[in-house]
Amino acid sequence: MADVITYRQAVAEGIAREMRRDPAVVCLGEDIGAAGGVFKTTAGLHEEFGSGRVWDTPISEQAIVGAAMGAAMTGMRPVAEIMFSDFLACCWDYLANEIPKVRYMTGGQVTVPLVVRTANGGGLGFGAQHSQATENWALTVPGLKIAAPATPADVIGMMAAAIRSDDPVVFFEHKGLLATKGPPAPPDHVVELGQAAVLREGDDVTLVALASMVPLALAAAERLAEEGIDAEVVDLRCLVPLDAMTVLGSLAKTSRLVTVEENPYQGGWGGTLVSIVADEGFGLLDAPVRRVAAACVPLPFADVLEAEVIPTVDKVVATVRDLSAY
Amino acid sequence: MTAAPRTADVSDTAELLALYEEMAVIRRTEKAAHDLFLSGLVKGTTHLAAGHEAVAVGASAALRDDDYVFATYRGHHHALARGATPEECLAELMSRASGLCGAKGGSMHLTKASGNMLGSYAIVGAHLPMAVGAAWSARLRGTGQIAVAFFGDGATNIGAFHEALNLAAVWKLPVLFVCENNLYMEYTPIADVTAVAHPAADRAPAYGIPGEIVDGNDVVAVREAVDRLAGRARAGDGPGLLEAQTYRHFGHSRADPATYRPAEEVERWLKHDPLDLARGRLAELGVPAGTVAAADGRAEAVVQAAVEAAKNAPAPDPRDALTDVWADGGARWRT
Description:
heterodimer, A: alpha/beta, seven-stranded mixed β-sheet, five-stranded mixed β-sheet, 14 strands, 37% helix, globular, B: alpha/beta, six-stranded parallel β-sheet, two-stranded antiparallel sheet, 11% strand, disordered N terminus, Transketo_C/PFOR_II (chain A), Alpha-ketoacid dehydrogenase subunit beta (chain A), oxidoreductase (chain A), magnesium ion binding (chain A), Transketolase_C (chain A)
């Protein structure tokens, strides 16, 4: 086993491990076969498993996710790729109306064990239609589980949990993290969905982050440490199931909360988390909560403009600094 | 699940009589649904399929019991043809705990998963890719099953229709697309909003799929056409498309008296009723009128008993509103 693995390699490795252990796991998506995916996140799968288990599709997002649903209802465990998370809108009917509701509206008769993988978020200069952090779209829909790993080992462990889940999972792979490296995952590594991780312990403030915002929050915490502010960093990992208890547990120690979100402030997941804290942990707080999130504008193209819109280390540091003085 | 088709030969009078009786049960169930709605015992809406019976019954007769079926919000007849009982269906419409979906689905979502009737979907055209996926799954598992998507003429102008046909064709999957062309996309004539004369069949060749047209009110013709297309699909020759020409006896939904339909058109189609056609065939085969009347009597008794049983069934437990979201049976979204 290599000393380090990239996030993008971890995606393919995570899928491959599940395909080896369960013949019901099949992949479908645009350019995922011999091409290995436009982000190379399926590299090697076609070579190992062949065209009988790794299926190239036309550019037909409705057919991809709809077919994955039909296959999941009838004994398979499909892993469907929607190339960019912005394109989830092209098959939104399946994510909003079909997949998450069929179990419920049939009175529990039907199970839909599928994974929809997608490359999420900004940071690569792809402009407004290829850069959105769209996890909040899924968060508005009861019946979808939502995974958004931040490290290569978590990609593998959460991919295992997602593919083994009997419920539908939308799996957000962050484009900005694809080239990042981390320790490899041990054999049989499974990270159950809905378990946040405390990545850095601290006593002064809790930073809650997801996916690309996790390394950003960690970098901010290092900067803050130089100023004598000791930040605890929680990687939420999943939005559904949501591990609010770990956040509340951290707040019991720090009494201050900042959410760090790449998605727009309006409708962001931080709003849900903060409302839980207000309901169940108000007495733990010594200061208002703060949310560092993207501005409510489409993602602009130029780096300087994008940085103005989405969270940066500077913005997180400034927010925490203000909050610490409260 | 049996592996054999349910019927052997529709020239067999007993078999044809059975198909007739199935259609008679569906007709009476739809009439009962209509009456129950008017009496306030069915809320929401219904999209009745009276007039479409031959499509569901004829197609089902040509399928294996383990083949997959996907239907639309106008799907009572498909649920019934694939094994749901009138009591289960009417109880669902009447919001009873004994309903087919525990009263969580309602008229537009009748589903009988134990019979591989995998649902009725109320977003037009959405289920066509699902049927493609079920057919893909059948092929991956090597079961010899096929999947059938029943849909209306209106669905042919939805993007998912075209995506589904293309994917099914390019992957050569064992799926049948069966269009129930009842001439109206909801309230609007399909011809007014569609660029081709046969909204389904004329589009199929664009995807390399044979598109056939059949008299959708003739249960024997439907059965034969589906049998032929299913045979092709099962043999690995890819998807098929059947456009069944039919007519709904009621409006689009409960709110629609269908006054937009020309009187002579309605009269012409009501004279081409699928039950009448089947009766005519039975008479030609020498089946006595009394035998057919007995089948009608049985259908009437089944549906009457179903109405009474559904009326007497309890309402669902309110706590069940918070079950069945997840595979563990619950709705818990936090750990």
